[in-house]
Amino acid sequence: MEERLLRLLDGCLKNDRNSQKLLYQEFYNFAMNICLRYTSNRYEASEVLNDGFFKAFLNLAKFDRARPFKAWLGRIMHNTSIDYYRTNLKVAFMEDLDHADAMESDISIEHQLDYEDLLAVIRRLPNAYRMVFNLYEVDGYSHEEIAGMLKISAGTSRSNLFKAKKKLQELVSLHASAKLRDQHTEAKVVALRQPDKNVIINKNRAQDE
Length: 209
Hints:
The chain is mainly alpha-helical. Helices cover 74% and strands 0% of the residues.
């Protein structure tokens, strides 16, 4: 572990406000990206983020310095996101599908989006779908593990994942189409702003004559 981080951790253990501020700033983007994946907007993500850092400061004495700090903090943000979901949101769309596993393989995301675009689309998923999608597809948990975390059945987890992928496919297609329209419109606007070189040349020739 680098010396600067060690000094910040030591300062935080002494409740030094400046050390806490610097540690917060150092890992803000990393932690926020986790929170954004699990919440529907930046306001909710900020709530989870601040709660997560508060928990991190409270439990810093338990951190094993032989392990990576970022992984430890990431786990706290991850668990805080799940706690926020369970506390503040009702789990919806909870119906089991006996053949959900087989159905999952029929759905794929055809369009390739950059990270920011994909994150924006994932955040538009219904809460229950977004939570299961993140836990299964991004964080690699099994349906049985997700069931234990969210207090649902494994069948419900499979069902929500199937529905999440189907909904995500629709949203990605709409997002890609909208982006193409915007690019086309922007190109037309730029073209209108550019003078026609042939017109300028002919106009100049006419003046010379």
